[in-house]
Write a structure and sequence with these properties.
The structure holds 2 protein chains of 2 kinds. By secondary structure, chain A is an all-alpha fold. Helices cover 74% and strands 0% of the residues of chain A. In chain A, helix 3 (49-78) runs parallel beside helix 7, helix 4 packs antiparallel against helix 5 and helix 6 (143-163) packs antiparallel against helix 7. Chain B has a domain at 268-475. Classes of the chains: A mainly alpha, B mainly alpha.
């Protein structure tokens, strides 16, 4: 059951790579949040009930509800619909993401002695999700796309922390702080402020500061 | 005492929030700065009052970092008394500035005092939250760009550092602890493969925060757009906090006898930082960006000294102290120039020596200090670093190191000389003369003290400081 959710989580990254509609990206974030909630609920049976309760409720509320809701609000406010000017065509984007994800699957299948103490399946997929997200950040042009990929990267890191959490829920709790961090700053303050200040959400507009001559 | 240092800013923030009194801003910042330094002094005199606990402690490995933060913060607090009078913002906004400044120092203090890698990571994340607002304080198009780059790049860095911490827990097997003492005591049983991988993630993640190339891109923008007292804190203390965590993880690598790979990565990033600085300093047209690049250079030297080991460890701590004192002075003086000329453009600042002699002297003295002109502390540290390279027979690296430092020295000297002795422009000097009254005595004194400390310690190192430096290396 748990592995099924992890596979679905990995596959959401393929959808994210293949679509340019920002609203679809936000929905993917929501799906990822729900999948992480289900993984948390099924994978931590050995922990005390209050820790499981904290983790699952936090995942569901912050990752699956609050962040997507907030992103949706920002999308409406900024009238952003699509990120059409990615550096690489969607087909190749999908192809490269598939290869990375396949690499993640392979990592979980190959028996590596030093991976014995962790959940290899979780580990491989999480690593693939982090790499795909980092790569997508480099090719997308909209600030909002970058934020969305940052959130998927953070979801990947959360999954990674679940794969090695063992008896150390503190590690996962620290990971939870990343969510709050995103919610407070990247989304709340900057995205809307940048839109007000620059009138557009293109990364290209954030390249005024440089070492050659500019007006200050 | 440690609990008071960590709780006081929270109480002060609440007081500022409810009192809404403009005069309280600077008073509380100054009180906290004195309290902060007093706690550092207690380490030497009344260590029983410190009351270290399992999460926070002042110990031989972090006392130097703490003292640097205390001294620089006190200097910034004094400077801020004059600086904040010139801020043309609403009382509410200036209260926000004071609040975030206190939170920023609190998170740096927490990061330094943490005994636990996870806790240190949380506080480093906290520094991003607080300082982002301060960088964005002027609310211009450029400051929002700088703050966005800072938050976004550092967030990715911090997230990668978290991946490194996760991998460290894989390396530690059944230990289940992130306490530094536990990690060092059990380091020899760690899995070397995972330890190496985790170090790379932590180095690149926190290296982003420290401003090491190739992950330094936020630094010139953020340092140049932040208000000058904040630039001084960012450069002289924030980078040190990230470096302390890297150093603690590197110590684990040393104990685990797994440092060959880590040394190569540190050397690579260190030399790349020097190279990037040498290239970009030639093209920069903004004097605050010049100082920011100089920070990248000095962080590179710290990385190189860490990698070299041996006598370079001593050089590392001397360099850390010297760079923080001098760079804080340099950034604060740049604040004076900005107040006078109302521009950060190098081309527009000329004949500083004729317009404001004191600022001009401070600008030159800071330049001489940062360029390791004897008797600056940086001369001692760079000399010892070169000596370490020669002892270890890294001749090519030594030549490259000296060559890059010379290029950087030339690029900076060119700018400083033009700014201080260049031909006077009537229009700009009229503006500067009009603004002369804005630069009050409290905007000169801190730099004088910091520079005096940096130059005197270059000639005479008191025995107690020498002992502390040696214990930092061992601890």
């Amino acid at each position: 059951m748990e592995n099924g959710f992890i596979i679905l989580f990995g596959l959401t990254m393929l959808y994210l790579s293949a679509t340019s509609r920002l609203i679809a990206h936000v929905k993917t974030i929501m799906v990822q949040g729900i999948l992480l909630f289900l993984i948390c609920a099924t994978a931590f049976s050995h922990l005390p009930w209050y820790l499981i309760a904290f983790l699952t409720i936090e995942t569901l509320v912050v990752k699956a509800i609050l962040i997507p809701l907030f992103l949706n609000k920002v999308l409406k406010k900024t009238h952003s619909n699509r990120d059409t000017d990615a550096n690489i065509a969607h087909f190749y984007c999908l192809l490269i993401s598939s290869i990375i994800l396949f690499g993640g699957f392979m990592l979980s299948v190959i028996e590596i002695p030093s991976l014995a103490m962790i959940n290899p399946f979780c580990f491989g997929i999480a690593l693939a999700v982090i790499i795909i997200s980092l790569w997508l950040i480099t090719i997308k042009h909209k600030i909002l796309s970058n934020v969305i990929e940052f959130i998927t990267m953070e979801n990947g890191i959360f999954l990674l922390s679940l794969s090695v959490a063992k008896e150390m829920p503190m590690l996962v709790n620290i990971g939870v702080l990343l969510d709050v961090f995103i919610a407070i700053y990247i989304l709340g303050l900057f995205v809307s402020q940048i839109n007000t200040e620059l009138g557009d959400m293109e990364v290209a507009h954030l390249s005024d500061l440089k070492d050659c001559e500019y007006n200050d | 005492m440690i609990s008071i240092v960590l709780l006081a800013p929270i109480v002060f923030c609440l007081v500022l929030f409810f009192a809404k009194n403009k005069t309280l801003n600077n008073i509380l910042i100054n009180i906290y700065a004195i309290l902060h330094l007093y706690c550092g002094i207690c380490y030497f005199t009344k260590s029983q009052y410190l009351m270290n606990n399992q999460y926070f402690s002042l110990n031989p490995s972090n006392i130097i970092f703490y003292l640097i933060l205390s001294v620089v913060f006190l200097a910034v607090a004094i400077y801020n008394n004059g600086y904040s009078k010139n801020l043309a913002f609403s009382d509410k906004k200036i209260m926000h500035y004071a609040t975030m400044l206190l939170i920023f120092v609190l998170s740096m203090t927490g990061g330094i005092l943490s005994n636990n890698l996870g806790l240190a990571w949380i506080f480093i994340e906290g520094t991003t939250l607080a300082s982002a607002y301060l960088i964005y304080f002027n609310k211009t198009k450029h400051s929002i760009e700088a703050a966005w780059k800072y938050v976004f790049i550092c967030s990715i860095g911090i997230a990668l550092a978290f991946v490194g911490i996760i991998l460290l827990t894989v390396a530690e097997g059944n230990l289940n602890s992130l306490n530094y003492i536990d990690l060092i005591n059990n380091a020899q049983s760690f899995n070397h493969f995972w330890l190496n991988v985790s170090f790379v993630f932590i180095l690149f993640g926190l290296g982003t925060k420290m401003g090491l190339a190739p992950v330094h891109f936020w630094l010139p923008d953020a340092h140049s757009e932040a208000p000058s007292p904040i630039s001084a804190l960012l450069s002289a203390t924030l980078l040190n906090c990230a470096f302390l965590v890297i150093l603690n993880v590197y110590k684990i690598m040393l104990v685990a006898n797994c440092y060959t790979y880590a040394r190569i990565v540190l050397l690579f990033m260190g030399f790349l930082s020097l190279f990037i600085t040498a290239v970009f300093l030639y093209h920069t047209t903004n004097y605050k960006r010049m100082l920011a690049y100089s920070s990248i250079e000095n962080m590179g030297i710290l990385a190189i000294a860490t990698a070299l080991g041996g006598i370079a460890y001593y050089a590392l701590i001397i360099h850390l102290i010297g760079h923080s004192l001098i760079k804080a002075s340099y950034f604060l003086t740049s604040g004076n120039i900005l107040e006078l000329f109302e521009t950060k453009r190098i081309k527009s600042v000329r004949a500083l020596a004729q317009i404001d002699r004191k600022t001009a002297w401070l600008w030159i003295a800071s330049f001489l200090g940062i360029c390791a002109f004897p008797p600056s502390m940086l001369f001692v540290s760079e000399f010892l670093t070169v000596k370490a390279m020669l002892i270890q027979k890294h001749y090519v690296l030594c030549v490259l190191f000296l060559f890059l430092l010379t290029v950087i020295l030339y690029a900076m000297a060119k700018v400083v000389i033009k700014m201080v002795f260049g031909e006077k422009s009537e229009e700009k000097s009229e503006i500067a003369s009009k603004n002369l009254s804005k630069v009050t005595i409290s905007m000169y004194v801190p730099q004088c003290v910091l520079l005096t400390l940096a130059f005197v310690l270059g000639i005479y190192l008191p025995q107690f400081l020498d002992i502390v430096i040696r214990s930092t290396i061992v601890g």
